[in-house]
Design brief:
By secondary structure, the chain is α+β, with helices and mostly antiparallel strands. It has 15 helices and eleven strands.
């Protein structure tokens, strides 16, 4: 026992590892290169977690390579995620939780991403409020942000916030952990942090806190913004102010090895109605933020009075992602599955989409659910051998009428 204690050079306890494991197992279940699943760890936690604590506490833990996994990004493009092993996610969570307690108090109030007590809905709500008060937006896109974080600058920032050797030691090792490409090739990394790691969002917040948040608060205190990780919206009062901020920002980000995406970064005019449209028609009048499209929309007050506002609702890209998921599932071909089993299978997905995208102008989701109802009618036609689509849709309408809570979206009134 004495020898064991003497080898523990880093102040990491078993309780920290166990608490981190309990948080990690609630998240994504994707396996890394070791093919160890969350279920395997749950069945024998001592086999996996005790050696992890032993190595973390002795300073001998080195993270395994990160598995590269493509995910669809829209418009036929893909984004590469880096999936660490589940054991490595536990290790990252140990350090992330400790580091977060140090840096969380200094973060800007308009930074919303991956922070306790803040959400994407909070960011969208604040964005809508600021769009009402200010007529211009700089819709900022940082080109390949997670892939271009400078390791040396990242470590300098970490040293400003903590002197804990174990945090700095393991943070540097995670930054430098290699990637296993899809073809099995091992690729060294001299910049960036894998988008998919547990600690990567916190690194991103620390990096952009210095590169963007604190800089704009110090140099342009009257400018308001919302940032969710690397998604940034800046609100201004004129086209001239927008161009001024954008020019300054390009120079600022260059100092941190970052680049403004020339095609995706835009200045947007947030007009409420055509009556007050005073800008050049070539200036965009809508933008997307966190899966919502902001644009002029007809709104109603509580007394029924109508007015124009610049409000968010589910974006076309988000609709397409949901419809692509329906295509992938091909539920109209599940003729061997009864209606209730189909409804149970879809319930968690539907609740998630309705909770997130239904927060703002839920009625705008009718296109998504109309297409789902069409697929359900096709399912009924295949299952019950109905001769025409009109007969199958008529059957579905009767089910909607007498059993309106069968599917989650029906209970919200999406029965058209």
């Amino acid at each position: 026992m004495i020898d064991e204690l003497n080898t523990k050079t880093q102040p990491i306890s078993k309780e920290q590892v166990w608490s981190a494991w309990k948080r990690v197992k609630k998240g994504g279940k994707g396996m890394g290169i070791d093919h160890v699943s969350a279920e395997m760890i749950s069945q024998n936690p001592r086999k996996y977690l005790y050696p992890l604590w032993n190595r973390l506490a002795s300073g001998s833990y080195f993270p395994p390579a990160v598995k590269q996994v493509p995910i669809p990004k829209g418009e036929g493009k893909e984004r590469m995620l880096g999936i660490p092993t589940i054991i490595d996610r536990v290790a990252q969570e140990v350090i992330r939780a400790e580091l977060e307690r140090v840096v969380e108090p200094i973060f800007h109030s308009s930074s919303f991403g991956y922070r306790p007590g803040k959400s994407a809905h909070d960011a969208v709500e604040q964005c809508a409020k600021n769009c009402w008060q200010r007529w211009y937006v700089v819709d900022l896109d940082i080109k390949g942000f997670f892939d271009n974080i400078d390791h040396e600058q990242m470590m300098c920032m970490l040293r400003k916030h903590t002197s804990q050797k174990h945090i700095l030691l393991y943070s540097e090792r995670w930054l430098k952990a290699p990637t296993v490409k899809q073809n099995g090739e091992l690729q060294a990394r001299d910049k960036g942090t894998p988008q998919g790691g547990v600690i990567s969002p916190l690194f991103a917040n620390i990096y952009l806190h210095e590169a963007f948040d604190q800089w704009i608060a110090d140099t342009q205190p009257l400018i308001v913004f919302e940032r969710y990780a690397d998604d940034i919206v800046i609100h201004t009062r004129s086209i001239e102010q927008s161009n001024f901020i954008l020019d300054k920002l390009k120079l600022r980000l260059q100092k941190y090895s970052l680049e403004v995406h020339p095609q995706k970064t835009r200045i947007v005019y947030c007009y409420r109605t055509a009556r007050f449209h005073k800008e050049n028609k070539q200036i965009p009048t809508s933008f997307d933020f966190l899966g919502f499209t902001f644009k002029p929309r007809l709104c109603a007050k509580s007394n029924g009075e109508k007015f124009w506002g610049f409000r968010p609702a589910i974006s076309k890209k988000s609709e397409k992602r949901i419809n692509d998921e329906f295509k992938r599932l091909a539920i109209h071909k599940w003729s061997g599955t009864d209606l209730h089993k189909l409804a149970n299978f879809l319930s968690s997905k539907l609740r998630g989409w309705l909770y997130y995208y239904g927060k703002f102008r839920i009625s705008e989701m009718h296109r998504v659910f109309r297409l789902l109802n069409i697929r359900l009618a096709k399912w009924a036609r295949n299952r019950y051998k109905l001769k025409t689509y009109s007969k199958s849709y008529g059957w579905l309408k009767r089910i909607m009428k007498f059993y309106p809570n069968t599917f989650v979206h029906w209970s919200y009134g999406f029965t058209g």
